[in-house]
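Human: Here is a favour to ask of a fellow structure person. Comparing notes only helps if you start from a blank page. I am asking you to supply a protein in sequence and structure-token form. Write it directly below this note and I will take it from there.

Assistant:
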Amino acid sequence: MNPTPDPKRLLVVDDERDIVELIRYNLTKEGYDVATAYNGKEALAQAGSTTALVILDLMMPVMDGFATVRKLKSTPATANIPVIILTASSHEADEVEGLELGADDYIQKPISPRKLVARVKAVLRRREQSGDEANEPPTIRQGRLAIDRRSFSVRIGDRDVFFPRKEFEILALLAAHPGKVFTREMLLNTIWGSQVIVVDRTVDVHIRKVREKLGDDADVIETIKGVGYRFKA
């Protein structure tokens, strides 16, 4: 059995050591166990199944934040670790790209320690809530699909298919409520949270990726034109 994430173990990644120390100091005061890294390659070496959250700068030497998020989200052992992106960039395209790669939140520099701590708590709270399905069956079965909330795994017929966390959460949410129409706003608020500002296109991109992975079963997710999406009842 894989180790479960330690809700207090965080990883802070930035090539500016004074920023790393500022973040580490403020999170340590809140009771978190903070590991540090100074580029994406070091971050990948440290991130593991016990890591609860990664706070990651975009512009770094050796391996930048985009490449690091992409690698984290494509590796089964780290795919479900929430990521908060830090950057001095004010370009909306950078924000959208980071969120579409699977990041959970996005904070611009200069950093407000109070805001950062609040965002960390909010992301971890959403993770806990999304993993707490006490009143629902742990496995959702719809036709050829078996979606296991505990292991974040999806089985389609006789094959296992890997879904990064955001794509998994979208599929699980829709499949748990067959026939219910979810607007893009509902999906954004449920999966990303109301504090994270992302565009409707983010949902459309993730839906497209989910359908690609579903293959011959892609039509179980229906588009309701001008409204949103639903899982075919």
